[in-house]
Write a structure and sequence with these properties.
- The protein has 4 domains: 6-174, Rossmann fold, CATH 3.40.50.300; 180-241, Helicase, Ruva Protein, domain 3; 246-362, Zinc Finger, Delta Prime, domain 3; 376-493, GMP Synthetase, Chain A, domain 3 (2-Layer Sandwich), CATH 3.30.300.180.
- It contains 24 helices and 10 strands.
- It has helices at 6-9, 22-33, 51-63, 77-83, 95-98, 101-110, 133-144, 164-167, 180-193, 200-209, 214-228, 234-241, 246-257, 261-273, 278-297, 308-320, 323-340, 346-362, 364-377, 395-405, 407-413, 435-442, 444-458, 481-489; strands spanning 40-44, 90-94, 121-126, 150-156, 171-174, 197-198, 231-232, 417-422, 425-430, 463-468.
- The strands form 3 sheets. It has a 5-stranded parallel β-sheet.
- Helix 14 (261-273) runs antiparallel to helix 18 (346-362) and helix 20 (395-405) packs antiparallel against helix 21.
- It binds zinc ion.
- Zinc ion binds next to helix 4.
């Protein structure tokens, strides 16, 4: 027997089996019983919340030979034919696949004909917002005066994109995201039927990650079973999703709150070593911070989507952060998520974002002041402050200059010591344990900025060469700047110019 995806096997066949949309199922069943169905319905809502399943059940219910309390019997020839997608009077159009022009034209030509097999012709148009304007206009003509034997069910994840003229002809139902507990319960029923054993934590994590979509939840479960077999643990789920645990996510934020760089980099290094996706970690962290925001604003815990064992720590963290702070954190992380799409250095991007958060926390006021002060100062003529031959001796003074222009760069340079300054080249060294500081300072943008500030301070062009010591306090091998840069950015994007 060929394999069938779980979400197909467990697709609801009756209104009573649709999860989390009782408000819609009840209204539709009552309309069926009272014989007061509208001619056109619009099902709106996020993906995987039951729109298409409800449309099919409704199509069956109107054509069923033995309906029971508004439910299809799922046994008569009409129900069976619809289930097998071989029923001539139920037509499904996927507007996303070809934008629907031919189908809608065809629909307009044939709509007048009476149903061939059943009582009513049902047109289900999925992702209807994808129709072209031309197709919408054709559809509108048929919606204006539909023959009594026709029922339209339009489904969309994006109702804003549907013309008002079409909206006004439909009775609209909004499908909600399904709550985590309901998803969890349904998954538990499925695994019981499939004879799969799954830990409660694994089940809850899948339910949470599906963020309100039952189909996604079942698909994730399916992947986990394919990966782990009949015994699914939380580690399998994390592996399949490429996510880190809630505890790890909380620990990451905790490192930021404690301004503990070492802990932060240790965590990130261990995530990278175990093959976690930086993109996913970032998403997990954004979602976690959103939950903290909710903890701060929601009176009851209803909307909170965190597991019990993390809740105490989460509440502490939420208390530590004001709403503006939390929203700033979410914004900064979302910005990093956007940048990530164009970056082949996801770890550096994530690290920089987290370090920014630490600095934001440490110096929220000064950062703003320096940026406003630094700008008008820039066009002024360069004033030579420090004699270049005493650059090393006056490093403290230089650092002050850097601090005035960038608290962030200053923070990264505090662990560096100046070693030599010869022929315009300043060598600075980082002890082995400050590899991250070294890496950050070595990024071209940062290095250029530092060079610019120092050059201004001493009144001559200064090239800065950072070095990283090994555990013994030596410089392990002579890497040229090109090699250093290649190490940082990948050799394929380095262009050497004399
Ligand atoms: Zn039936």
């Amino acid at each position: 027997m060929s394999y069938r995806a779980l979400y197909r096997v467990f697709r609801p066949q009756r209104f009573s089996e649709i999860k989390g949309q009782d408000h819609i199922s009840t209204t539709l069943k009552n309309a069926l019983l009272a014989d007061r169905l509208a001619h056109a319905y619009l099902f709106c809502g996020p993906r995987g919340t039951g729109k298409t399943s409800s449309a099919k059940i409704l199509a069956k219910a109107v054509n069923c030979l033995h309906p029971q309390d508004g439910e299809p019997c799922n046994q008569c020839e009409n129900c069976l034919a619809i289930n097998q997608e071989s029923f001539l009077d139920v037509l499904e159009i996927d507007a996303a696949s070809n934008r629907g022009i031919d189908e809608i034209r065809d629909l307009r030509d044939k709509i007048r004909f009476a149903p061939a097999q059943g009582k009513r012709k049902v047109y289900i148009i999925d992702e209807v917002h994808m129709l072209t304007t031309e197709a919408f206009n054709a559809l509108l003509k048929t919606l204006e005066e539909p023959p009594s034997h026709v029922l339209f069910i339009l489904a969309t994840t994006d109702p804003q994109k549907i013309p008002l003229t079409v909206l006004s002809r439909c009775q609209r139902f909004d499908f909600r995201k399904i709550n985590t507990e309901e998803i969890r319960q349904h998954l538990a029923d499925i695994v019981a039927e499939e004879n799969v054993s799954i830990s409660p934590a694994a089940l809850t994590t899948i339910a949470r990650k599906a963020s309100g979509g039952m189909r996604d939840a079942i698909s994730i479960l399916d992947q986990c079973i394919a990966f782990a077999g009949k015994q699914v643990e939380i580690s399998h789920v994390e592996m399949v999703l490429g996510t880190i645990s809630e505890e790890d996510t909380a620990a990451l934020l905790q490192a930021v709150l404690e301004q503990n760089y070492q802990k932060l980099f240790d965590l990130l290094t261990s995530f990278a070593a175990s093959g976690k996706e930086m993109k996913q970690i970032l998403r997990d962290l954004i979602e976690y911070c959103r939950q903290l925001l909710m903890l701060n604003v929601a009176a009851d815990g209803q909307l909170i989507n965190l597991s019990e064992n993390i809740l105490i720590l989460a509440r502490q963290q939420a208390k530590q952060l004001s709403l503006p702070q939390l929203s700033k954190i979410v914004n900064r992380l979302s910005e990093a998520e956007k940048d990530l799409r164009y970056s082949n250095q996801p770890q550096i991007l994530l690290e920089t974002a987290l370090v920014d958060l630490i600095l934001q926390q440490a110096q929220p006021i000064q950062i703003q002041q320096t940026t406003t002060v630094a700008k008008p100062a820039a066009p002024q003529p360069v004033r030579k402050l420090i004699a270049s031959d005493s650059l090393i001796q006056q490093w403290g003074e230089i650092m002050q200059q850097i601090r005035q222009q960038s608290i962030k760069l200053h923070a990264f340079l505090t662990e560096a010591k100046p070693v030599t300054f010869e022929q315009g080249e300043l060598i600075i060294r980082f002890p082995a344990q400050y590899k991250f500081h070294y890496n950050t300072v070595s990024q071209l943008d940062n290095l250029r900025k530092i060079e610019q500030i120092i050059s201004q301070a001493v009144g001559q062009a200064v090239k800065v060469s950072p070095q990283l010591e090994n555990e013994q306090g030596n410089i392990p091998q002579e890497l040229t700047l090109v090699e250093e840069t290649a190490k940082l950015f990948g050799s394929d994007i380095i262009e050497i110019k004399d």
